């Protein structure tokens, strides 16, 4: 757990003791919403409903598959793209009546979703909404170390530290960057160094007077 996701983790740990049937987790792309949702799904036995299945003819029981815990990701984006609000409204009511729970994720909180159905809007805006922020240095470093370890790549702490200072701060970016570094190291038949990372990220090395490279850029 890190400061960026501590509140969301605390809410998920409280399940099923939520004050209402729904909880919304929101934050920028790559902040870890999906990871948290998967952890909750494993803990609760929730069924995931794809947002594009929220259509006018979708019955809530069919959507839930009889489960009393349901996960729907990227809801705000789906609503903006034309997902059927009535289907989500009926799903919410079905779970509320059954004593079930609904976890929703989105880039923005429900209060900013383009909801046109007043009854659905009032229910979702009354639900707790917790933000997940971009990963901090410690969490991002831990993610990079795990991604490198999963690939059996030996990378120094110096390189990991440099990457956390210069890369885009998201889990998605970390995965892409490790992919790129692995491919570049393989193509160039060399280890993963700060110099290699500079090349992958397109960051020129600062010039040191009288030398063409920077100390530590081996």
TrEMBL record:
One of its GO terms (biological process) is DNA replication initiation. It holds the Pfam family Hda_lid. It comes from the Bacteria. InterPro entries: Hda_lid, P-loop_NTPase. GO terms for molecular function: DNA replication origin binding. One of its GO terms (cellular component) is plasma membrane. Residues 149-201 form the Hda lid domain. This is Chromosomal replication initiator.
